[in-house]
Known about the structure:
Blueprint: E1 2-8, E2 16-18, H1 25-28, E3 36-43, E4 47-61, E5 64-70, E6 84-92, E7 95-105, H2 129-134, E8 142-143, E9 151-155, E10 161-175, E11 178-193, H3 199-202, E12 204-211, E13 215-223, E14 228-236, E15 257-264, E16 268-282, E17 285-294, E18 297-308, E19 311-323, H4 346-351, E20 367-369, H5 375-380, E21 383-396, E22 399-411, E23 420-427, E24 431-439, E25 444-449
Antiparallel strand pairs: 1-19, 2-20, 3-4, 3-14, 4-5, 5-6, 6-7, 7-8, 9-10, 10-11, 11-12, 12-13, 13-14, 15-16, 15-25, 16-17, 17-18, 18-19, 20-21, 21-22, 22-23, 23-24, 24-25
Amino acid sequence: MSRVRWGVLVGVVAFACAFASPALADDWLPHNPDASWTYQWTDSEYSTVPTTEKVTVKSTKGASFTLAWTTEGLGNSGDAVHSIGTIALQETTSGIDVVAPYWSSNAPPPSFPFLCAAVGSCPNSLASTYYNVVWGSIAHVLQEPLLRGTTWSGTGGDSTIQATSTYAGTEKVTVPAFPDGVVAAKVRSDVAQAGALGDPYGSGVKTVWWVYGVGPVKIVFQHDGGPVTTFALQSTNEKPEMPPSDANWFPMQQGLKGTYRWTNNKHLKKPEVESFKLDQVANNSARANVTCVSGPIKCSGLYYLTLRTNGLSSIESYVKAASLAKFPPLGPKSAPAAQRRRFFTPFDLMIFGLNPIVAEYSASGQSWTVAPNGRDFAVFGAAATSTVLGVKSVKVPAGTFRALEIKTTLKQVGFPFGSGTRLSWFASGRGLVKLVFSHGDGSTSTVVLTK
């Protein structure tokens, strides 16, 4: 028996990519210098007179930007809420976050519930549009990519406020800015504040409707105890766009599992059967536990995957294996023989070559290429390009799926088995369902999902 024990670290990788129309955080919340939004809001108990509020972009610096708002000069009545302030936000690889210097504003009206643990200086307020947008989740105001099943947890304005947010799909919503209706992504947050004098008001169900190319267009906060605060976009100079596909081609979902059958017509004629299960899921990252069930390979492996605004990527992997199968060697040539890549599981075939494995908001024609001086090339030693071919029907033992097809071409100099063409099919909600790797040595590896 050829016995191999090894562990390979695949670091967080930099990659060069040429995506067609990549989706970025600023598509969900644009912040070009002249962008502006005017909202009107009421509270059913504490502010029944409508308040009109204008939001503008105060400044931008790299991925960070500051929004400013005011109620002045907008024709508000004397009984409306007076509010003026700023909030600092940032695009990150996981979406939109609140960042230092955070926010500042005048104090909320004294008639509003007190949202801190003790009377005195209190930084918490719900007397403006963006305070309601970020309430309960300042670390992830909006998590991206925004795909089916996306759920995240957060805290904020302070540690007494926690929220669990869920993307609930898209729906058509009508507001004064878009009287004919516009398609919006609906995000529901279950917010809980414990310890504040007015904590029932700081708790409840908050729903925000986000329009691609515009930002929030409607907010409804159903507070514990009965009050309801409603915000609606009155006007904006931003143009709505149809949101990208929210298909989740490899969900970071606790308990997602499956079984694969893998063969190679030259090197693995007896099928290798392996199972996987996702655990340790947090913030759109997960660990996949892979176990060899039957066949010539005995193995256990851990694969760490993450889903960010640059797509689904492999962070690191560790595999212990004992194999009777004789595979040709792999590179990279620069690495000592004991540290070179091995194919022991379908996940090894799936992640080989470059990140991302699947692009964010994948669409037909998108392509990306490994950077010659980047981490991907240092780890795999292969020139590689991936292209999205589209969504097709794929039949495997586990069923028939509508699956995203990705073609990857690889050239690992000096190692034909690490070169060739890989076709991968990913089904929404299930992940990888089929893979065919036509290696440069003339052999073909075929992986299918069996259950």
